[in-house]
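Issue 218. Parser rejects a valid record. Input:
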Amino acid sequence: EQLEALNIPAAQDVTLENLSFAYGEGPIFSGLSLTAHPGDIIGITGPVACGKSTLGKAFLCELPYTGSIQYGGREMAGMTDVERCGVVGYLGHDPELLSDSIRNNILLGRDDDAWKYLRAVCLEDEVKAMPNGLDTRVGDGGVRLSGGQQQRLALARTLAHPRPLLVLDDPFSALDRKTEEQVFDNLRKMTAGSTVLLISHRLYLFPQMDGVLWIQDGKAVCAAHKELMVQNPQYAALVNAQEGGERDEPEK
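Output the parser choked on:
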């Protein structure tokens, strides 16, 4: 019932101005400014522990930030929780699934075609092979899913409940490269009216992003992939290392 009461606003620009975020002593990152438009997919990356996930959580306003995060000209910290839930779809890197059927995990009780979302995340054949298909129970007392299956199921749920701003924290880390490319293509089609902030440590797809945000040593730079390859040796080195296949193995 609660979900139906949400007001999902029309897509608007997302603007960060001089955004800074600190835990305890020093800032994790500071001085971040960027504007993202509906339809944009912005890739966010940087060295391990640079603050990528923290930036993702800033949109939930669970922890105070300084500077500004505006959606359509409204400060997000000034919105009510319900208003913010209508704007932001957030997928953390540890997917939280319900101990329930695959169907209910995706649709959360809504009446819709769950297969459409399973196809989008390349999980359709695996679910068809399960003993009870969409009614297969996962979680406690149910089928054990692999990390990649859990990730894709959580992404299917996110796609089934569209929001004008989607924050996806490393949604592909457990997928092989071919599946990642397919899922990304489908994601772009299904989120064409939304702004997507995609946090990742795997950079194969970053040439296809509409912008890249690189966070390192507390500073954040936003530019096109090609510009960043020229201007930022650390980013270029990471992209080239991954293209060379040194990091082609998915995490388990």
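Fixed in the parser; the record now loads. Residues 246-252 have pLDDT under 50 and may be disordered.
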